Amino acid sequence: MKFTLKVLMGAMICGHLWIVPVALAVIETYEFSSPELELRYHQLSQELRCPKCQNQNIADSNAPIARDLRVVLYEQLEQGATDDEILAFMVARYGEFVRYRPGVDRNTILLWAAPGLLLILGAASLLFHLRQRPDHASDLTEAEKAEIARLLGDPRD
Amino acid sequence: MRAKKFIPLVAFAVLAGLLFRGLSIDPTELPAARLGQPFPNFAGPELRSGRQISVAALTERPALVNVWATWCYSCRVEHPYLLALAEQGVPIYGLNYKDQPVKAREWLAQLGDPYQLNVVDVEGSVGLDLGVYGAPETYVLDAAGHIAHRHVGVLDEAVFQRDFSRWFPTVASPAAAAGSEDGL
Q1: Nearest-CA residue of chain A relative to B34?
Q2: Most buried residue, A17, A88, A107, B46, by CB count within 10 Å?
């Protein structure tokens, strides 16, 4: 619904500027038996990568193979397949390549772990640098320390 | 303290190394997901005879499976080389992918038929099970009937000698070249 609204608004704006509106996604009509399936269709078709055009998902691509995959996606959704089953079907045929959100395995573990690792690395180096910072207080002579204590009104005085 | 000075240089060198490696990687090359697996089962008519066939009809080993269509210009380019390979005794099965069988039969009648048989795949469903994403593509079925190799694009002498000859050691390079020229 949201998407249709966006396209409509886009079309209105473009129409106003006398520019032919360019559709963002391929227009196709599928009759879904439930809105939930339609939602899942949109999610999955945007998450699946077109094997032919490399940097487009199958929702945006005009390639024949992307069209075929959309049909398969639609049919499997209507047949009651789960997201995992559909993804497994696609990966079995086109490899992990077709997933824009790849599963965690030996090849992708570094990719998935990188944000956490970098955060830990950053925190550790920050901590290290803070600890390393010279403690200027210890450079003071006894007389200076006493002077500071006097100025601050140390209750020990 | 001195070592710290070199951190940017080392970081630069590592990044430059990675980027340089990236230059020689072809991003359009897809790993074939079906490697090492048996050819997916199918049921459909054979192009010329019209008889119903399944995967059991692909009996020759090792063999090539060539994905082609009359709408595919590159398939026309590689066709003479396929004829040359067939002449040298390489068994080639065709997968007529998302094509019109009438046109496909005309094509074979006009240009010659290098195929043992042709699986008619009008809907592209056999191709989908195989992981095909365009035409031409050529697969190797090894002695065990497993998919051992995939080549995307035109199959020619150079590609065959580089990637395919280990399954077909009897294909002589100069003879194949001569055959290819005859065909053209």
Answers
A1: A93
A2: B46
The CATH superfamily holding the domain B36-183 is Glutaredoxin (3.40.30.10)
In this predicted structure, the answer to whether residue A15 has a pLDDT above a threshold of 80 is no
CB contact under 8 A, A64 and B27: no
What is the residue whose two structure tokens read 């006009």? B110
Task: Name the CATH superfamily housing domain A2-98.
Answer: Cytochrome C biogenesis protein (1.10.8.640)
ipTM of the complex as predicted: 0.79
For the cut 60, the answer to whether the pLDDT of residue A153 exceeds it is: yes
Number of other CB atoms surrounding residue A146 within 10 Å: 14
Tell me which residue has tokens 């690395």.
A121
Residue A52 has pLDDT above 70, yes or no: yes
Q: How far does A70 lie from chain B, in Å, by closest CA? A: 12
Residue A132: left if φ>0, alpha if ψ -120 to 50, beta else—which one?
alpha
Query: Does the pLDDT value for residue B128 go beyond 70?
Result: yes
